[in-house]
Amino acid sequence: MTQLDMTGIFHAYGNIPVLCDVSLAVAPGELACLLGPSGCGKTTLLRVIAGLEPIQKGRITIGGDVMADAIQDIDKPAENRGVGLMFQDFALFPHLTVRRNVTFGIAGYHDSRADWVDQALRRVGLAGYASRYPHTLSGGQQQRVALLRALAPKPRLMLLDEPFSSLDVTLRAQVRGETSDILKDSGVASVMVTHDPEEAMSMADNIFVMDQGRIVQRGAPASLYLHPVNAFVAALFGPVNRLNSCVRSACVSTPVGTFAARNLDEGTTAQVLIRHEGIKVLKNPENRQDAIPARLLSARLIGRTSRVRLRIAEGTEFATEIEARVPLAPSMTTGDLVWIAVDHDRVLVFAAT
Amino acid sequence: MAPVTTVQIQLSKRSIRFRFNAWTAAVLIVAVLAFVPIAAVLGMAMAPTDGVWDHLSATVLPQYVRTTLLLMTGVGIGTFIVGTGTAWLITVYRLPGRQILEWALLLPLAMPAYVVAYVYTDILEFAGPIQGLLRHLYGWKLHSDYWFPDIRSLGGAITVMTLVLYPYVYLLARAAFLDQAAGVVEVSRSLGHGPWRTFCKVSLPMARPSIVVGISLCMMEALNDFGTVDFFAVPTFTTGIFDVWLNMGSASGAAQMASVLLIFVLALVIVERAARRGRRYYHSYQKAEYEGMASSQTLTPKWRAAAFVACVVPIVGGFLIPAGLLVTYALRHYQVALQPEFSIYAGNSLMLSGLAALVAVMVGTFLAYGTRLHGGRIVLLATRVASLGYAVPGAVLAIGVILPTALLDNTIDAWSQSLFGIPTGLLISGTVMVVVIGYVVRFLALSYGAMEAGLARITPNMDGAARTLGAGPGRLLLRVHLPLLRASLLTAGLLVFVDCMKELPMTMILRPFNFETLATFVHQYAMDERLEESAPGALAIVIAGILPVILLSRTLGARLKANVAPVVGSVEVAAR
């Protein structure tokens, strides 16, 4: 059972292809995230679902009803799709009060239902703001009004386009949680677009990673983080050290160790990605056989962790710099000789591109 | 209604292609219609003139070219100095009464140049009070006894036009100065440049594109002027066109003169467009803290007084003196305003301006929606062409309107006679309709600009929000667009209305026989040396002209506030 089902969506602006054979499904009550760099086509995809861009190729059903089908030449207008859309800039109507904004989409709204609006506003912490105009609200308050406005007509599907990007960084984490709760409470299936992996991981049930108009990987946040299908997805979810080397006897040798080459062809160049948190920095390792000597170049405390720059294989032709993330400030000084140990579960090997 | 169809564009795939074509076609038709007058002038210029052209080029033409060039140069330099200077002083220094000066510097915009010319002639000529006082004081009797500058001269025309046109430069220069990040000025000063060198080396070059746009607008207005140069008997192209058209009765001769004038205009349009393109490179990313910027610069009391006087003089000369005199004369001759003719003239002015404003707003709205819904290259080019009329002098445009309408009338008449044996006579030319057509072609840029700026404030996301909330095209238009566009519609109408009230050269050529508006009545009386009696009429025009100044002054104070954006927008596109 799916709430949103889209198959074989292609889209182009003029001659420039934006979406290429995109298919995705969202279950009822599920929050799915479209994650990808700007310009990867995720906003276009959202607009196609909402009916703000005409369908060019493919088929979209919402709650089992066909909304658009290029072959059957069906393309329901946006106003008849029952889809709530929340924009990056919120797009509140500047000439309407908060109440009128929220009730704009409720068919046959009558002032007798004013109680409902007041209740909803109270629930999101906006009690007493009903007759204010949008420009008098803070960014976070505008965000909540926009969310409420989109949810008010009880849409069958909720779409959110970068809903937190115009908010202050400090505000974002809090609003993220609130939004998540509101969406879960309403039980609506949602698709959210974001370029922030942390945002996607903290909110989504399922993540669809997009790159250049295609969905490159889909799955639960943890599986994407642990088992990325390529270097692009791996790098998207956090900083990595990249080391290139040749595949010899099904293994890849690097200055920080030798790793299984999985199913890469013999003699090809492999790309080894090691997450920053996959490198442990030790002063006096118990077992020096698994440890590699390194020169500490700098260590900087940034909040709960420290970012450490190291040089390995010093004095050889393989000398290279790597970065690591370690808990708290290490009790070492710049220039010290230290030891590093690599967590093999945090190492990913892909064919070099 | 046009806008309804616009929103339906996205309804289904099939309707897109069809409606898109309909829109483009309709916008193109408007552009072609708006271009007909210019094309007609150029076409007519090709017709043989029976020696009129040879005669002209052998006699008066060199003089016309010289005077026109001198007039443009003079007005350009004058408006540059006054407009940029006052804008800089107001932006950077904390002058006494700065908040009042800020908008009062716009007041001369309400004064038609010809009215200022009449008033100054009245007080500065030989029989006027100033020279009379001098003669009384020093015992001079004859004109040859002393020297006094003659206001009825090229220099007089340049002075008068500078006084009323500098606000264009002031407005754009000030906006440019405000846009410059305060940091840029502070960096320059921290690097050891004093205020004057900072102005010359940083602020002025950064504002240059905007200033050039302003000056080209002033020069276009100078080319357009008929009342002043006619009154001062300064032989420019515009007076020349009237002379050839009305006195020599040569349409093609006038068209040839007009074509030469169009070359001047074309040069200005090219300069203006280049400056506009350049402007984006001078844009600073940070918004200026103008209050901070102003307080950071202090002046010695002496210089402060000088700066204050420099800002007050243009207001006094360009508005207070002429307006004060007009009020005095009008009070003395208020009974003129009570005569039935006066109310007929006023009614004519209101009717023509109101009709033109209505049509211009309708067409302007249509074009603005055309650009919004399909901003393709063809539509964009078409709107540019349709806005071209604003750059073309009224006299040229009038000839361009009258030629094709007469042709159309004659064709219809001949066709009707041959088919039904009934002569239709002149249906359009010689009626008020032709005046309205002329006004609309000339001032379309104003209404289009205001509507475009107004529509730009309704983001596409607002459309999207309304539609996903279930609002169909009709509801979107009624509940979102219309309320948000109300201010823009009013502004667009007001701007066109006021400019039509002031319009003189086109009205003179296009009006029906014995048909007077306030502008033509004032001009006629002034020419007959009966200025005082025309004062009530002139005052009425000035009062109407103050309305857009009030709108503009509000944009200066709160440039980013949504409700006033359309006015700035229309000034921006005024000369496209």
Question: What is this structure's SSE topology?
Answer:
The complex is a heterodimer of chains A (353) and B (576).
Chain A: E1 4-13, E2 16-26, E3 31-35, H1 42-50, E4 57-62, E5 65-69, E6 74-75, E7 83-86, H2 98-103, H3 114-123, H4 139-151, E8 157-161, H5 169-186, E9 189-194, H6 197-203, E10 206-211, E11 214-219, H7 221-226, H8 231-236, E12 240-248, E13 251-254, E14 257-260, E15 269-275, E16 279-282, E17 292-302, E18 305-312, E19 320-327, E20 337-342, E21 347-351
Parallel strand pairs in A: 3-9, 3-10, 7-8, 8-9
Antiparallel strand pairs in A: 1-2, 1-4, 4-5, 5-6, 10-11, 12-13, 12-15, 13-14, 15-21, 16-20, 17-18, 17-20, 18-19
Chain B: H1 2-8, H2 13-45, H3 52-58, H4 61-92, H5 98-104, H6 113-124, H7 129-138, H8 154-179, H9 182-190, H10 195-224, H11 227-232, H12 237-247, H13 251-279, H14 290-295, H15 301-332, H16 340-373, H17 377-386, H18 394-420, H19 432-456, H20 460-468, H21 473-502, H22 505-510, H23 518-527, H24 531-557, H25 565-573
Helix pairs in contact in B: 1-16, 1-21, 2-13, 2-16, 2-17, 2-18, 4-8, 4-10, 4-15, 6-8, 6-15, 8-10, 9-10, 10-13, 12-13, 13-18, 15-24, 16-19, 16-21, 18-19, 19-21, 19-25, 21-24, 21-25, 23-24
Tags for this model:
heterodimer; A: 353 residues; alpha+beta; five-stranded antiparallel sheet; 21% helix; 37% strand; globular; B: 576 residues; mainly alpha; MetI-like fold; 25 helices; disordered N terminus; disordered C terminus
Structure summary:
Chain A has 353 residues and is of the alpha+beta class. Chain A has eight helices and 21 strands.
